[in-house]
Design goal:
Length: 94
């Protein structure tokens, strides 16, 4: 089996999270409270691509926004040979 090499584009993922939140009926304050955060800075750091949500926070976002994890994450090819597994992972058809 070929090595599968993919990565999460942190900056684009932050932009996508921001887009989903702003298209939802929720405010930053609502998301902050749903996450149990005392301050919204973590959310703004996600938006800027400075940090990524933890897996727990990512799952809370998915439940809150009614999306799948794959809808929030932006994957990028790391330059390895294209394999069927990577195409399938990204949802591409031949």
């Amino acid at each position: 089996m070929e090595r599968i090499s993919v990565a999460i584009n942190q900056k684009k993922t932050g932009c996508r999270i921001r887009k989903f939140i702003f298209q939802s009926p929720y405010t930053i304050k609502d998301v902050q409270e749903a996450m149990g955060f005392h301050h919204p800075q973590s959310i703004y750091r996600w938006f800027a691509g400075e940090t990524m949500p933890s897996l727990d926070s990512l799952l809370v976002l998915c439940v809150l926004l009614h999306v799948k994890v794959e809808d929030l994450l932006v994957m990028e090819d790391t330059g390895e040979a294209e394999s069927e597994n990577k195409k399938e992972f990204r949802g591409e058809d031949e």
